[in-house]
């Protein structure tokens, strides 16, 4: 008989009982609705053991790869340790050494971290970086495993930002910090190498996209890749030289820097990144989309991309929500 | 197809639901009569809910009760959800199935199932 482990308690799974029933029948409060593996309200993650194939049907590839599953249709023969998707405690705290800090532009700091334990992540995912035990923030990884030795973050200084202010003003190379992760389902999945890809990012939303693009190219993606990076003015853009170099190296990669302000020099597109993207490529049928940065941009663009023909399963989005200052 | 095949099987089962969900959701979001109700929702979660709804409307396996329907739509009824909006959804559902080449007699059966949830959806 299989045992289900949840929040440090063990529950015996009865015959023909789903993981959801096993937990809820014993008083565990969990969200659920359809109880037939469709609505995904009860989504959980296996942190130990392997969920059944049937319980992962219909889930996005990026969730499946991270052992997410639907407990309402999961009838495992072997033990499972499970957690809710937003249960941060399910991941261990990992110490890391600050290797380097350098400004990418006036507001964005490139932070290089050497993790003390192997961090099994995919380019484009995020980690939570802690200033102290109860004060942490999510930052996307711009690095690519097996390509970059260390973890790279692009940290934008926010007005009154407690953690970003600390990173910009106080953090020094050699210091040890704590992190948790990885998380997020915005990453490249190999398989369809010829698929067209569009990536739209504003501000430090470039971080995960920079990782995703280099990951895709190194895995031999052959389809066209379009990156639209937007900012108000020239000072807000960064890594332009690196991206132009990448473009010179890979014929299928296109970098379109976009400026929404009034002063737009030659070589830059004039307008907001998502507007320019839809202007240049109006039909997105069969395209894979990556959207990162300002929450409102991500929300609007997700909807527009879907209406322009992109399938829901092909839209990967990461909205950079900002914590309200206390 | 034999006479015994269920509506769900005749339409094409889970594969049909998967084919229909994006088309249906696109129609709903493009429909000015109802799209304001979907402005603030998480699209990913909403698509999963649409899938659950289609599975039920196609006569497929589900565990929804009238009470679930009431609870799930109460906040929308408070925002003014009424018969005209349910009509629009059933219309979009029919147009989706027509686009997929489903026969009219089956579409009528699907519409009837969707229709049967009307009073619960509108908290009546």
How would you describe what is shown here?
Chain A: Residues 1-88 form the 2Fe-2S ferredoxin-type domain. Helices cover 19% and strands 30% of the residues of chain A. By secondary structure, chain A is of the alpha/beta class. Chain A folds into three domains: 3-88, Roll (Ubiquitin-like (UB roll)); 91-183, Elongation Factor Tu (Ef-tu), domain 3 (Beta Barrel), CATH 2.40.30; 197-319, Rossmann fold, CATH 3.40.50.80. A six-stranded antiparallel sheet of chain A has the order 9-8-11-6-7-10. Chain A has a six-stranded parallel sheet with strand order 15-14-13-12-16-17, with helices on both faces. The mean pLDDT of chain A is 93. Chain B has seven helices and no strands. The A-B interface holds A 33-36, 38-41, 58, 60, 302-303, 306-307, 311-312, 315 and B 18, 21-22, 25-26, 29-30, 43-45, 47-49, 51-52, 55, 61-64, 68, 72.
Topology, element by element:
The complex is a heterodimer of chains A (326) and B (124).
Chain A: E1 3-6, E2 9-12, H1 19-24, E3 44-48, H2 61-64, E4 68-69, E5 80-83, E6 94-103, E7 108-115, E8 126-132, E9 135-140, E10 151-156, H3 162-169, E11 176-183, E12 197-202, H4 206-218, E13 225-231, H5 240-249, E14 253-259, E15 269-270, H6 273-280, E16 288-293, H7 295-307, E17 315-319
Parallel strand pairs in A: 1-5, 12-13, 12-16, 13-14, 14-15, 16-17
Antiparallel strand pairs in A: 1-2, 3-4, 3-5, 6-7, 6-11, 7-10, 8-9, 8-11
Chain B: H1 7-11, H2 13-30, H3 43-57, H4 66-78, H5 83-99, H6 104-115, H7 118-121
Helix pairs in contact in B: 2-3, 2-5, 5-6
Short overview:
Chain A is α/β, with parallel strands linked by helices and 326 residues long. Chain A is built from seven helices and 17 strands. Chain A is 19% helix and 30% strand.
